[in-house]
Amino acid sequence: MKYKRAIAVAAALSVPAAPAVALAATGTTDTTTTTKTSQQEPKASAAAVAHVATHRKAVKRNVRLARLHAKRTEHRLSRSYDERANVRSLAELQKSNRRLRLKLDRLKHQDAIVASLRPTLRAIANCESHHNPHAVNPTGTYRGLFQFDHHTWSTVGGKGDPARASVREQYLRAALLYKRVGRSPWPVCGR
To answer: How far is it, in rounded angstroms, from Cα 98 to Cα 89?
Structure first.
């Protein structure tokens, strides 16, 4: 068995050298064939090296953007994310990087909206719930920092229970509502 394996390895190693050996045996030299082959191999390997470098750079960027997005949205990035990013193709990584960049830009825009209204929103939250993000009125209709009802919460893009949403999410939804209709949802505290 070892003998057959050794023959197979020797045959595989001698195949690339076969044209040069055959030419040497006939006494003729074909410089175009040897030159052409030697020029193609470095170009192919240079392209492969460039592709690997581009892939590594895309993986690094993807992991960085995913970590930043997870931090900004108060989520956890799985431990295996780095490993899974390494296995993805370059096209997939580039598409994911564009999508993550758009999401981060949207978050930045949302943060700017909240920042412009923060003093007003703080005053409303203080009046409505005394800054308690889990506050629920006695009837259970109005919930969270800004005492949203479920219908109003869903109209500004909120999902689930407003009282269980993060503080950042509640401020964002209140800012979007304030931008749409002003102080009217908070008739007493919005003055």
So the answer is: 14
Q: What tens digit of pLDDT does each residue of 51-107 get?
A: 899 999 999 999 999 999 998 887 888 889 999 999 999 999 999 999 999 999 999
- The secondary structure of 169-191, three-state, reads HHHHHHHHHHHHHCCCCCCCCCC
- Tell me the domains of the chain and their CATH numbers: 1-33 (no CATH), 43-181 (1.10.530.10)
- At residue 136, φ and ψ (nearest 5 deg) are -135, 130
Q: What's the whole-model pTM score?
A: 0.62
- Which of 124, 117, 181, 177 is closest to 153 using CA atoms? 177
Residue 175 CB neighbour total at 10 angstroms: 23
Classify 143 as helix, strand or coil. Answer: strand
